[in-house]
Amino acid sequence: MTTERPGVPARPVLDITGLQVHYGTGRRRRQALDGVSLSVAPGETLGLIGETGSGKSTLARTVLGLVRPSAGSVIVDGEDVTAHGPRQWRDLRRRGVVQYVFQDPLRSLDPDLTVEESLIEPLLVRGEPRVKAAQRVRAFLPRVRLSEDLIGRLPGELSGGQRQRIAVARALVTEPRLIILDEPVSALDSANRVQVLEILKNLPATGVALVFISHDLGSVAGIADRIAVLYRGELVETGTAPDVIGRPRHPYTRLLVGSAPTLRGAPADRAQRDSLRALLDA
Ligand code: ADP
Ligand code: MG
Q1: Which ligand has the nearest atom to the CA of 104?
Q2: 282 C-alpha to ligand 1 centroid (Å)
Q3: Element housing 253 (H / E)
Q4: Pairwise CA distance, residues 123 & 143, whole Å
């Protein structure tokens, strides 16, 4: 269902402007994000890539209200959350506007809740009656390729791949506007990785927007509409996935594309990679 008028761009679900984040104080103060601006449209999947320490998780945690920015603004579904206190964040979560999936599914799932309770809970929090919530959860399971016999199990009784599919299901079940996924497939073996990526690629058309974070361009390439590249706390490149992969402009993006040879069907050129790395380190 869309309320868009032709020619009028939909309001972004996520709109970040000039975001600065610092950790620590005094001489220990370090900048983790430096002037990051990006926006995500309804239904869009943005792939956010960058190497370890580039600030990806910091960006995710800032959007989820777990880290407070030192400057800039974060607007989620039209609501400026930059100065939100704990109560306002609770309210936003209760309404199910933004959900999250972390690399380790045990961080997104309560170890004491069965699969069914874990999936029902966000619906109850939103005010849905229990019977209706349970029905919705049963109907939802096939969409995330989970069989009904898993429903009574605890997270500890599931495989890593099953757990991550439950975490994804839990994020999806309330039909949020935005889901932040921080390295959701990085800890999975390749079969489970493919399964989770397939689920995310074939989401029902609820208009949910995804920010899919990964250090691996290969995982992002197949599901992202647009790709944003974070390098040492700065966004160095943003574009459509075919543009960023086909015509990378920044040396770091060229390095990433060159290191993922299957993307372009050609083996990576070692000499080129070394010279780009030298350029970046200069
Ligand atoms: P990524 O997710 O891309 O690996 P992070 O956002 O986790 O990057 O980290 C970005 C930078 O901020 C790194 O230099 C990291 O060491 C630092 N950092 C992250 N979290 C904290 C923290 N809680 N306290 C201090 N420094 C942090
Ligand atoms: Mg991280």
Answers
A1: 2
A2: 23
A3: helix 251-259
A4: 17
* Beta bridge partners of residue 47, listed in sequence order: 212, 227
157 lines ligand 1 (CB under 6 A): no
pTM assigned to the model: 0.90
Nearest to 65 by CA among 84, 46, 37: 84
User: At residue 59, what is the residue type?
Assistant: L
Low-confidence spans in the chain with pLDDT less than 50: 1-2, 265-268
* Per-residue pLDDT at 279: 67
Other beta carbons within 10 angstroms of residue 27's beta carbon come to: 6
Q: Ligand 2 centre and the CA of 57: distance in Å? A: 4
Q: What is the pLDDT of residue 126?
A: 87
For ligand 1, atom 15, the nearest C-alpha belongs to 53
Instruction: For residue 22, report the distance from its CA to the centre of ligand 1, in Å.
Output: 10
3-state secondary structure of 280: helix
CA nearest ligand 1 atom 26, residue: 23
Burial of 212 (0-12, 13-18, 19+ CB in 10 A): buried
